[in-house]
Amino acid sequence: xxxxxxxxxxxxxxxxxxxxxxxxxxxxxxxxxxxxxxxxxxxxxxxxxxxxxxxxxxxxxxxxxxxxxxxxxxxxxxxxxxxxxxxxxxxxxxxxxxxxxxxxxxxxxxxxxxxxxxxxxxxxxxxxxxxxxxxxxxxxxxxxxxxxxxxxxxxxxxxxxxxxxxxxxxxxxxxxxxxxxxxxxxxxxxxxxxxxxxxxxxxxxxxxxxxxxxxxxxxxxxxxxxxxxxxxxxxxxxxxxx
Length: 242
Known about the structure:
alpha+beta
């Protein structure tokens, strides 16, 4: 599931140009879009937590009104599984990891429990809590996942990934300077790697466009764009919280 980077860019330009407010270059759009996409993913975790609290408080409904499930589906767009090989009981954290969900052996027969590094010494101090090969644990550093006791073989890591940066790729007319969207790659396309759509649930389209418009208002130095986009975003938030 994805949202067309071309449709979003053209919508943003259409809104900005409606009153000749300015032009957002593809390069500016790509950078802003990447930040807004990450903002939306981060917000989903807060929204999910709030929705679950309401659900457990008896303020939820089933089927189409199941808000936690709806938000979970949005987060699941970024779900990823990787099989990684242990080296001296460690695996390198995937470069696209945003939030770790679960670690197990590849056959799913053994679950690795997460602990805080500061608590490991307390666990090791008692035979009753000391991790074993049947009940192993792990802790995470900035770059590695370390198991205790030291495990060998492969582990399956389930996580929410960092979304790929959106790219509105284009070709430029040598005579007129006009930019034309291109999904191709190679010579003449800027950048040469080609397009990359937004990896978001379709229901996030409005929030995505409003978020880009807010940043665009800063880029083109037009506070009215920021105010208008913020007002629309606040209306959406109020409706969701009502």
